[in-house]
Amino acid sequence: MPKKRHPTQFTKPPTTAPASLSLSSSSSRNADHHERSVNELLANMRRSTLNSSPSPALQSQLHASPSVPPDLRSILQLPESPAPPPRRLQRRFINGRRGPPGPPPPRSWITFAESLHVASSPNYFGWKDGTTSTLRALPLPGAYYPKEQSLIAMVLRRMAVDWDQQQDWNRFYIYTLPSRLRTALIAYISELYHLGLNARDLRLILQGPPLDELEQYGVAPPDLASLNEDVRDLDLTGSIGRMLSVKEVGDLLFPAAKAPEQDATVLESWDAPAPTAAPLRLLPNLTRLSLAIDPTIAKPPSWKHLLAIASKLNTVTHLSLVGWPEPSLTPNAKHTKVISPTTGQSVQYSGTGTYSHTLDDDWTEATLILRRLSGRMYSLEYLDLCGCADWFPALKYVVRDDGNSSACVDWAGDWGKISTLRLTSGYALPEWQESSWAGQAAQRQGQGQEGARGGSRPTKAQIIKYDEWVRAASEVEKHIRVQRGGRGKWITVERDVLPEYAKKVLEWEAAQQAAR
């Protein structure tokens, strides 16, 4: 027979617990239990958790024996007390400040890479005959720039583009940034800002607003002795000659000493020297300096101003002079002549005349200037002279005085530490894939017509000039190796290589001249 089914008595669970499961406590104690706050409940849970299963570190602290003096420990032969656990290290910024709470930022936000700075819009400078070049200043080795795809690089690039607003709204915060970010910001402003970097902007980033402005808003002035203590790089590529001069850079980095205030007290001795206030260097630990310029600027930099501050740049190990003109103290007087008061004859006013390099092959002035520069900046290990191919012969020229003494750039002594020298021209011949130059020479006459295959055809004048630059760089390399003679460091000279088709053109031209 089927079993009988009895319906359940309750359709939902009872609201009160059965008597068998009730706690043996009074009703007042249950009321107190329900009236306890949330903080008391959480504290009770923590205590129960610690009492139930304490951690090993907590067990060692709970069961550790009390400390005993060393003398009693040795008498009683007790073991050494365990050392306290090390404190958790706190994340700190580069300048020593405590980092924000929370997990560390992603690596891509804070990672700095070496020599990864690539210009977003490279500058192309023109040849005299209209062809383009690829003259660009490479970042100095060891200089730190944020990765191109990192958040820091994006923010700094945006700040450089909007520098008009940033220098006004954030003028009280920019100089408080970490040193690496400030040096990278200087490089981005020099590269991306349409007006370039001027002396006022450079002073704002490196030492903050003027003192009267800080006092007006109640801001404490920064300590310049420690503010730029860890600044190693200064990239001014593209700003020199536009809105910034070498003299302004020297006045900013090496301010003149202020005269001491007159004291009413009498000196103890007349022979005691008068107290003088030593000038404070803005960047005392500067090691990398880039003064690269655009060769097409209207106002080229002054070698005289560079020599004036060169003796104070004795800590610089990496220097970039990309695009600088030929060394001369009076470049504007190259075609000027004066009448000598003693002989009454017309003489050249400048140390370099109109035909000094082309006909006379005289590089006396340029060589003496470079020799003075090498004697003052004797700590150089890297020198970038890209785009200076027109005065490469001055690097190996020997100035002879009456046949008894001679002077040249000292590559074994003053510049004996240089291990990398860039002697590239900064220009590239147009890519051309024509294989039969000689067969079509009579038809095209080598004057800038379009080739049969691949791009514009280089002219014969371009190839000859490019070959002169390559030969000059090769001769400088041989001169340096001979002068050192095994002394000093091994030097690596980076120079251009003549394409194969250009070599064939020169061989064909030499054969044609020999046949005539």
Q: Would you write up a description of this structure?
A:
It is a single chain. 32% of the residues lie in helices and 7% in strands. It is α/β, with parallel strands linked by helices and 516 residues long. Among the domains are: 105-255 and 283-325, no CATH class; 363-516, no CATH class. The longest helix is centred in the C-terminal third of the chain and has 25 residues, at 460-484. A 6-stranded parallel β-sheet has the order 3-4-5-8-11-12. The chain has helices at 27-35, 38-52, 56-62, 70-76, 107-110, 151-161, 163-169, 179-192, 199-207, 211-216, 224-227, 246-253, 303-310, 364-376, 441-444, 460-484, 500-515; strands spanning 112-114, 144-146, 233-235, 288-290, 318-320, 337-339, 346-348, 382-384, 399-401, 405-407, 420-422, 492-494. The N and C termini lie far apart (133 Å). The chain contains 17 helices and 12 strands. α6 (151-161) packs across α8 (179-192).
N-C termini distance: 133 Å
Classify the secondary structure makeup into a structural class. alpha/beta
Separate helix tally:
17
Spatial sequence of strands, sheet with the most strands: 3-4-5-8-11-12
Shape: elongated
**Which oligomeric form is depicted?**
single chain
Return the average pLDDT rounded to an integer.
77
DSSP strand (E) fraction?
A: 5-15%
Kindly state the percentage of residues in helix.
25-40%
Report the biggest beta sheet as strand number plus sense, adding barrel if it closes. Answer: 6 strands, parallel
Task: Give a count of the beta strands, DSSP E runs of length 2 or more.
Answer: 12
Name the helix and strand elements from N-terminus to C-terminus, one letter apiece.
HHHHHEEHHHHHHEHEHEEEHEEEEHHEH
Radius of gyration: 38 Å
| Parts with pLDDT < 50 across at least 5 consecutive residues | 21-28, 111-132, 434-455
